[in-house]
Design brief:
The chain is of the alpha/beta class. It is about 40% helix and about 10% strand. It has 2 domains: about 300 residues, NADP-dependent oxidoreductase domain (TIM Barrel, Alpha-Beta Barrel), CATH 3.20.20.100; about 30 residues, no CATH class. Strands 9-8-7-6-5-4-3-10 form an 8-stranded parallel β-sheet, covered by helices on one side. Strands 1-2 form a two-stranded antiparallel ribbon. The protein is globular. The structure holds NADP nicotinamide-adenine-dinucleotide phosphate (NAP). Pfam families: Aldo_ket_red.
Length: about 350
């Protein structure tokens, strides 16, 4: 296991993070406590120190299990949890990014996790309502009070994250160190704005769903069962062609499809720390095998080709030959170090 600095912070985290949305059986497809512990032990044994949960996962069981598992060596672990999503039905203030829910949710998480502090608190998703100043000032208060050490944001448009970090920087508040979003061979749209933004702002990227919930292992092509329903976009005709290419590349390299899929998501020239999900210990062991090799460029090119997307406006427009020549007078040919 190698380690990475989390964005512009000095925090050291393992190069992969353990996802624990599968800890607990409440959602119908997770692992029981015994299997969850085996997954946790396997990750710890491989040198992992970075663990991801959320207030909402498996109705609180995930946080409770994680709290128990890390208790004997709490300070060793970089513990990340999230707030935003509802903890109670029929109460509008028990969800969202506003200060009242933030403080309430963090207090409840600390209790379930049985700890005095959270290393990294994620805003789980953008709620389209809370003013960005309220969000950033609330998070800064949690850091100042020592309840939270670092903050990150997940599932949020790039323009909101840019605005939030710019305001935080100018006001001397804690800014986001990391960003979380779905990114895989079957979900490449973050290449439009989220990934370039993360690079420009120095945010660590911790992608989720790098194996498409299991679809990129090829198990559905073989008729095996799993948690992704057959009507899911992750199992569409196009996704299946991509999954088949992953399977082919893996067999040519003598590795497993899950290792190819995760490594593809790690290959970019910016800090990429995949959050690895598993419902069985042997799945995690398989995924961790991705750490022992790098994908050859020709395989990356093949995977890029089969999964390519349109970047859309303004990216395609700015890249077009006409614009480069007409608007900038051939600048890109003459400049050696243009940025993109
Ligand atoms: N911020 C967010 O909104 C957000 C959203 C989702 C997840 N997350 C985080 O990211 C983590 C990972 O997300 P994810 O679980 O959705 O995505 P994932 O890593 O793409 O998929 C994990 C699933 O793939 C299957 N799998 C894993 N290894 C396998 C193997 N070797 N062979 C066959 N199947 C295998 C398992 O499903 P089966 O049970 O079907 O075998 C497993 O539960 C979560 O635990 C959570 O911490 C964050």
């Amino acid at each position: 296991m190698q380690y990475q600095l989390l964005g512009r912070s000095g925090l050291r985290v393992s190069e992969v993070c353990l996802g624990t949305m599968t800890f607990g059986t409440e959602w119908g497809w997770g692992a029981d406590k015994h299997e969850s512990f085996k997954i946790f032990e396997s990750f710890a044994g491989a040198g992992g120190n970075f663990i991801d949960t959320a207030n909402r996962y498996t109705e609180g069981s995930s946080e409770k299990y994680v709290g128990e598992f890390i208790e004997s060596d709490r300070d060793h672990w970089v513990l990340a949890t999230k707030f935003t999503l509802k903890d109670r039905n029929d109460d509008l203030n028990f969800a969202g990014n506003h200060r009242k829910n933030m403080m309430r949710s963090v207090r409840a998480s600390l209790k379930r996790l049985n700890t005095e502090y959270i290393d990294l608190l994620w805003v789980h998703m953008w709620d389209n309502t809370t003013p960005v100043e309220e969000l950033m000032r609330g998070l800064d208060d949690l850091v100042t009070r020592g309840l939270v050490h670092y903050v990150g944001i997940s599932d949020t448009p790039a323009w909101v994250v840019s605005q939030a970090n710019t305001i935080a920087d100018f006001r001397g508040w804690n800014a986001f160190a990391a960003i979380q979003f779905e990114y895989s061979l079957i979900q490449r749209t973050p290449e439009r704005d989220l990934l370039p933004m993360a690079k420009a702002l120095g945010l660590a990227v911790t992608p989720w769903g790098t194996i498409g919930g299991g679809a990129l292992t090829g198990k559905y092509l073989r008729g095996e069962s799993g948690r992704v329903p057959d009507h899911s976009i992750r199992r569409s005709e196009h996704s299946s062609i991509i999954a088949q290419t992953v399977v082919d590349v893996a067999s040519e390299l003598g590795v497993t499809p899950v290792q190819v899929a995760i490594n593809w998501a790690r290959h970019r020239d910016q800090v990429m720390i995949p959050i690895i999900g598993a419902s069985k210990e042997k799945q995690l062991a398989d995924s961790l095998g991705c750490l022992s090799f790098k994908l050859p460029q020709e395989m990356i090119d093949r995977l890029n080709e089969v999964s390519k997307i349109e970047l859309g406006f303004p990216h395609e427009f700015l890249k077009s030959e006409g614009i480069k020549e007409e608007a900038f007078g051939g600048l890109y040919e003459k400049l050696e170090n243009h940025r993109n």
